Every structure is written in C-alpha cells, then in structure tokens.
Batch of 3 targets.
Target 1
Amino acid sequence: MRSPRPQPGLRASIIVARLRLALCLALFAALGWASSAAAQQPQTVKDDPPGRGFALGKRPFAATSSWNTPIRAGAIFRKVGWPPSARFGVAWSSYSPAVYIASASDPVVAIDYPPSWGLPAGTVRVRLPAGVDGASGTDGELLVIDGDTVHNFWQFRRTGPEAATAQSYAATNVATGTGWGRRSPFLGAGIVAAGSSQLAGLLVQAETDQGEIGHALQLVIDWNYAKPGHIGEAISGDGPNPKGLLQEGQRLAIPATAGMPDGLSPLGQKVFRAYQRYGAFVIDVAGGVTNLRAQANAYDQSTITALDRDLVRISPLLQRVGYPGQKTPATASR
C-alpha cells in the first residue's frame, strides 16, 4: 500500500488506483498522519562515499544494505509455484521511473505533496531540468538525486517551470541509507508498496554498461500472486489475494546450481547472474505481469525488447530464499 499508488507493470486499472488510494488514506489516518551461494566470483563494486554526491553507475545505498549483500552460503531455496500462465517482462517505457541527477544549473522546482509515507503535507524544493515530468502511465513515477538525497515521487506533474505536484513523496540518503523504509516511527524511503526507494534494485544503464549488476533487483509481481501483508524489511504491502504466492519484502533468487539459459542477450546474462548472486526483492504489484523495472530515460528499444524476451525464461527460475534455523518473518497488514 504505497501512499496512494496503483502500481501496474503494464497498465493498472483506474479501479485499482482508487482502491489503493482509499486503503492508503486509511493507513495514514490510522497512523495519525504521523511523523547463495554466488554464481561467480565476487566482484569489486564501487560504493558512493557520503557527502560527495552520487553519480549514476555507482551502487546506491550502504554496502551493508540487504540490497547490496550477496545470497549467503547455505541458503535454502523453495520453489514459488509460478503457474504455467504466469507472464514475465520488464517495465521501461511506462510504469518505471526516469532518474535525474540535480545540477546547479537546473531550476529549483517547488513540489507540493499531501501527507504520505509518514510525512505531513508539505513542499520540497529540488533542482530539476526544464521539461522533466513523471513517467508515462497512471503512476507517473520520478527519481531525482540531489546531493546525497534520492527523492521519489508518485504521480508527479510539472505545473510550471518552477512548480509541480506529486500525490505521494518519500526520500532517503542514497549513500548511507539502506534503501528500505523505517517501521517505527513509520517513514518510507520511497513510494513503492513495500516502502522502499524506487532506486533500490532498478536497472540503471550507467551501471549495466560498465560491468556486472552489484545488487539485488526489484521485482514487481502480478497482483494475482501477491498475498496481503509484508515480510522482511518491507514496511508496508498491498497484496490483495489471500491465496497468493508471495508477500512484499520476500527475497527470491536463482540457485547457483541452475544453468544459464542459452542465447540470452548481454543484459539478460547480467540479470541472470545478479539473480544468482544477489537475488531480487518483491516490492510492488502489477496488473497481469511480473516485471523488473529499468530506468525510463536510458537504454534503447532493442536492448529492452531482447531483455523482455530473456525474462520469459529467466524469471520463472526465481525461488524463495531462506536459511537453516531462520524463523518465518513476522507479517503485518499496514
């Protein structure tokens, strides 16, 4: 349940958007509107030092974040039970955010937002290039990195050269944060259903162009497979199906013993290896498809088309990850 945000992978219905808005408003009212083993040898990943600004291509968030921690030796894998009819792909041209790094030459834009993710209603001022608007689709997502802060907006709409609105907003530190929200006192890091930053686990071209993917990926599952509640480090969830397969916050991965399918594109191969080394976290739901998300203002159509084909063979290999003696994480419906 993100602040009001219906999250589809292809297209979310307007009905679902309204249902989620109602659920989210109920959440804020209840809160009082309150304040694997590795498939390859470990590679060196450059983390962004605090206070020096973030550059695309660097790995976001603290090195100790679970997003940046490989699947441990001794992991136990359990099949998800994906049905034969399950669809898999990548969100890119819609329902996935563009990522912008603020520049001193960009105009300062005053963005008004309502109470969301533990924040009261307010206005945040962010440097943003002229003409930048929310993503295509009803979600209208946007990520803006200004210094060490990654700002995450939902239903962002530019209303003038120096003014905009968003229907949900959250932010976190891109260098020292975990990429996850905080349960108590409740505070989101981003606007996805799990309360994590939308930068966490996003496919970013500057990173994939220069080498391997050095973190877990974000997975947006078909809402038919999403159970109510949330587990792990998720602070919220919007799964609607009591008979679903997974909850938001669940970590999945491909076992190290699984062979890579033949004929994958270069990016598809990197995604497969990342799935084996770091896995993926379920952070959102989609309408009729289970998707990765890729940076909307990067990549090209041929690369995404090839990856979309690859994921039909890669993503069904994902399994639940656990460890010996690990207790089932407590669940909650927020």
Target 2
Amino acid sequence: MHYRVLGSTGIKVSEVSFGAWVIGTGMYGVHDRDHDMALIRMALDLGINTFDTADMYGDGLSEKILGEALRGGYDVNVFTKVGYEVGKIINGRHIQNFSVNHIINAARESFNRLGRRITLLQLHNPPINVIRDRELHRALLKLVEDGYVEHVGVALGPETNILNEGLAAIDEGYESIMFVFNILEQEPGRTLMRRGAERSIGLITRVPHASNVLTSRQDINFRPNDHRNLRDRDWLIKALDFTNTRIKPIAQSLGMDLETLAIKYVLSYPVSTVMITATSIEELTKYVGAADGNYLNDDTVRALESLYAEFTKSLNG
C-alpha cells in the first residue's frame, strides 16, 4: 500500500480507503456481521489505514461494527458523516437535519458508537446554504476543540449541484471534500481538484468503478434495496456499452482489467485517496492491488479524458 497526505491536515491516508457503507447495512447486499468483520480485518492486513462510514448507515450499526473491529490500538483514520436523522425514514428516504443541535448531538453519538475520536467529521450531502452556514461551521470547530473530532469536511451529494457545493465548501474553509470521480464521471471532479489543490484541500474520491460498470463482471442488475438502484437506468446501459466498445480496449492494451484501470486512473490525479466499495475479500484484494505506485502515463490519462468528452457528448446528443 502507498500513502498520501489529506490536504493540509497532515494526516497520512492509504491511497485506497475502505467505504464502510458495505458494513452493517443492506445497501450493497445482505448484511452479515462475520463477513463484515472479515472485510475490515483484511483491509487492515492489506495496509488500508482509512475507513469512512456515516451515522445513518444501518442506523448506527456500521459505526458500531467498525468501532468494535478497530478496538485494540489500531492506528487508523476513521471518517464519519452526519446530517441525517438516524432511524427516521419518510416515503423510503432518510430525513436530513443540519440544525446545530442535531449535528452536535449526532457527532457525539458517532463518537460513542465508534469508541474513539473521529479523524474527519463530514457534513453528509449538505445543500449549499448549509455549507455556507457559518454558525454551523463554528459548531463543528467547537467539536474539534472539545476533542470529539480532529478535522471537518464535506461529503458532496446527491449529484445535482456538486460543483457549486464543492466550491462553496472550499471557499468556506472546510478541510476536505468527498465527491464522485471516475473515468465515466470526470466532472465536476477535475474542476474541484484544481481548485482544491490551490487551497491544499483534502480530496477524497468515491465510486471509482461507476456502480459496477467499470468492472469485469459488469453486473448492473441490483437487488431491490441496493443503493446503486438510485442510478439512472438509461445512463447505466449507455455507460456499459461505451465502456465495452471504447474503454475496455485501452485496459486490454495496457494488460490490465477494468477494475485496475479504474483505480489507477483516479490515482493518476492529485487526489488524497479513493474510497472503494468492496463487498468481498476478492474485490478488496484486487482493488488494493491496483494501488502499487505505478499509475497511468500522461498520454493514457489524456486519452481517457477525451473519451469522457466523447461519452458526455453522446449522452447529450
């Protein structure tokens, strides 16, 4: 495993980090506690030192399992996210709450479930007015002062106003942003990277495999409760066809599979880390293996940027 620094925080993060949305939830398959623990142990064995969860994943269960698995003096980074009311669902959707009181209480509850100080506390999918709420930002910094949290950032989503929200988070002085970035979804990620790098912001990317499109199995027929069902079905079908005709040949010419190309593409940029969705030991091992310090040359990166422009034009055409 290779490591990078999270912006100006000084925190050393593994290039591949563990997305704990697969732990304690049914978001990406059937939850099994023993399997969850095995995934976390394997992640540690492979050199992953950064784990990202949220209070609403499994209504707190993801944090509890992660906290239990990491007890015993593991020197790791634990990121979590707050902004949804745990256990409160209306019409099948969790309810957001970014009031100062809720965020403070939610952070303290996450602290207790994890059993450790939170390395990075992120606002979870906040709208732009919340990102610009100075009173809320001060409350987050008070959590740092009180010892619950080390650093504060913003996890951007859903994918509607990401560019403006990301730029606002950078302008407001948050220490990191998390956003979607992959071969098929390069913007607004590349723009956010340029601005973030100028300000020494931690750049955390997610969804490197574009919801299974950039994988060998390419299974886009998800279970009813699978989080990836939120994807536009038409986009998935078009992305799959484009990947097989235009992107897969590049992977083959480089002697690698799509999973490896996808990870190496992201790590060819000045990101801090890429959060993976690994539901099996096999996936976890393969994804980590791609972070070997040998990334794509400039010509390949430019070729993939051109293909993204071509894919985007085909969607809009």
Target 3
Amino acid sequence: MAAHLWHHLVLHRELETSMIRSPRQACIAALLAAVAFCLCGFTTTTTDPDKAKVVTTDVAHFWQAFDAAAKAPAVQRVEIYRKEYFDRASQGLKDFDQQRHVTPESLAAHVEQHRAEYIKLRPYINEVVDQKPVIQAAFRKLAALYPRIKLPVHVYFVVGQQHGAGMNSPNGIVLAADVFATPPGTPYDYTKVTPAFVPFAAVHETIHFNQAFSGGDNMTLLQAVITEGSADFVTSLVLQQPDVRQMTDRWQYGCPNEQALFARFKQHKDSTDFGPWLYNHHPAPGWPPDMGYWLGYRIAQTYYDHAADKHKALTALLNVTDFQKLLDESGYPDKAPVCAPEKPVR
C-alpha cells in the first residue's frame, strides 16, 4: 500500500494510482510513492491458492538479453532486447510495457546507458524473484485463514526502466523487480525498499481486492486509515512485518505517542484532507511518513484481538462500511493490546 506499494511497497503512490476502484483510491498508495501500484478492481482472481501463479520467466529472459547485448555492437542491441525479452514476454510483461510505454528501443537505451547500475542491482533483482515461494506460502496461509479470499491469478515479476514499481492488469499484479532491488548499505530513503518488502506488498494489495469499501472522492481520513491499516494488519496475520525502516520507524514513534496521536486523529477523522497522516513524505515535524497506516493497523489489531470469533472479526474488517461503528466497537485506544506488530497465525 502496505497497503502505495506495498501501503506499503513503496506500496504506493504510482502503483496504486494508475487504476483503482475510485478516483480517491487511485491516490491510495500502499507505502511509497515510487513503489506504489494500482489496485484494479477488474483483476482476475481465484479462491484456490494453487491457481495463483507467481511468474518469473521475464526476469530470466531479461538477463539473457542483457548478457547477449554486452557482446554485441551497439546497433544490434535493440533487436536483441526485442528478440530475447519482448518477443518472449509473459502477458504480465505485455501489460506492463503497454501501460508504462516501454519499448525495445526505450529499454535498450536506458539499460545500456545504466549498464553498471543493472550489474550492481543484478543479485538483488534476483533476490526479489527469490521471494516467489514466500508469496506462494502466504497465499496458501491466507486461503486457510479466510477460505473466501480472492487471490490474483498471476503475480508477474518483470524488469523495467527503474521507474514504477508495478501495476495491476486484468491478468494480475505486475511487479518491477528492479525497483524493489535496493542494495544493502544504500542511504535510507523512504521511497527505496529492499527485496524483503516484496511479499508484504503483494499480499497487502491482495487484501485490497477483498475489501468491500470502494472509497470515493469524499473518502474521509477515518475511512482511508482503517482501509489501509486493516490491509496491513490482515497481511501481518500471514507474514511477519518486514524489518524495514518504512515500517519500524512508525512503531518506534507510534508506541510512545499513541494517545497523543489518537487525540489528534479524532479531531480530523471526518476530514477529506489526509494531511500528515497518509501519502505524505514530509509530514509534521518528527513524524515518520504514513503514520495513518500504523494507526489503522492498531485499530484493526485491537478489534481483532478482542474478538471471540476471529473469522467473524476478519470478515468484519474486510467488509466494513460503517467505519465509526468499527472504531467504537474496537475499544481503541483504551483496549489496545501491547504495542507491537501482530505475530502471524501459525
């Protein structure tokens, strides 16, 4: 998004802004502007985790083109990328290229100009692809936890021009592995995430497929915070939150300031101005970005943890349309559990 993109990868501004269920939700990015992807309500889904495929062939084809181009004269390189990468494209890559306006000419020009950078990123791009079994396991766990869950029929990994972390199409979620491949030791930047974030971002976006609330131009802060925060929370039931600063900074700031944050939130919860809470990389002084994700997570966590019937609580979180009622019934913040990320269900 969690949830901008995913809000998380870095789920989020661009990833979740190209196509979504409403104009307002087109602005709901899972986590980060640079790694955000669109939530398309028309993406084909399945309830069978064995039919939710993670497709990585495009990345292998890219490296074949990349290696072949290194041995060829410059005038032949466009044709190499066309033959080895574009002509062998999965449906996800075809959708990505069309949406992002990527052509053999533009990709060859960008990659060859930045060849040293792609060489540096190569092991980390491959590490992104290595998240495939983690995503598949999370989908199976999600289906066991909530059998009615709708999963994307495909999650595609592609390599692009280091711009735009992904998108959704009718054929599934498409993730640009190069954008998630931040090497260790890179100076911290909220918009740069590591491969460890990929599974959480993919599942966060999947949760959005399953939320009944469709937003709108007049979406309130309360609605947006619970929508994004509950997507992060449900994701954390099947995946440990990644140890990345985009998330850990929120906990470090949020826990000791929880009461003050909620008091301020109450004053603005009915506003359609998300101010420092969401989708703002430069919030109020001292705040980490996107604290609204964290506050929504804590509301959902409180609601779920105090529910006797966990399946019923999960259903309520996914189908909420009366957000004030859910907030009231959660008992947050007075009944909030220990301030720590939820441990995944075993």
